[in-house]
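Annex B. Sample input.
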Amino acid sequence: MKRFLSCLIACLPALAYAQAPAEPPAESNPIGTIIFGVLFVGFCIVFAWMVCRNKSKDQNEEKKQP
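Annex B, continued. Sample output.
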């Protein structure tokens, strides 16, 4: 614990010095973000549908077994 604290205290000045001025964001095409969003939402919907489908199948099989 003493080593961790001493290292942390020693690194604080270096971290403060390393702060670079903020650069403006690079110009980018939003198509990649839109495609990622559509795929992400689609995978989430499919995953939820598969979970619900399997849950209902399990409940139906439990009801069928005597």
